[in-house]
User: Which sequence fits this backbone?
């Protein structure tokens, strides 16, 4: 996990952040960015902290047992979306269990495509959820 997190920082997060700053799509391109992280050990290694600080990113660690208070997306949005995802996954498996004896990787990939689309559609139908997602800039 540690090396994967460092890979995400190095190969995805930092280039995306630099690209946004260079193309003026950030509201304040000359300011540092803030990265909120929980206190997982791989978030606080010397290599990770060195990487984020060289890219003008300030880190803020969320103390143990405070995720529910400080990461509202985890407790409000993700919980609801995961509920829809669970519901549609159960339905899909129930509706296809007779036609699929042994599930292949391809069968599972097809299922994931269907259930994520259904869960997202159900989640965004609600005006409350839809407006919340749109105002956060996640969808248009």
Assistant:
């Amino acid at each position: 996990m540690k090396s994967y997190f460092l890979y995400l920082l190095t190969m995805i997060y930092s280039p995306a952040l630099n690209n946004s700053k260079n193309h003026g799509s950030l509201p304040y391109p000359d300011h540092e960015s803030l990265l909120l992280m929980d206190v997982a050990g791989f978030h606080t290694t010397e290599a990770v902290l060195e990487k984020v600080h060289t890219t003008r990113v300030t880190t803020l660690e969320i103390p143990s047992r405070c995720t529910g208070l400080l990461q509202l997306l985890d407790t409000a949005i993700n919980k609801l979306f995961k509920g829809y995802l669970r519901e549609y996954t159960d339905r899909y498996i129930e509706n296809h269990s007779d036609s699929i004896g042994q599930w292949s990787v391809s069968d599972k990939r097809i299922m994931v495509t269907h259930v994520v689309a259904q869960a997202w559609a159900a989640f965004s139908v609600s005006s409350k959820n839809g407006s919340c997602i749109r105002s956060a800039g996640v969808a248009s």
About this structure: The longest strand covers residues 33-38.
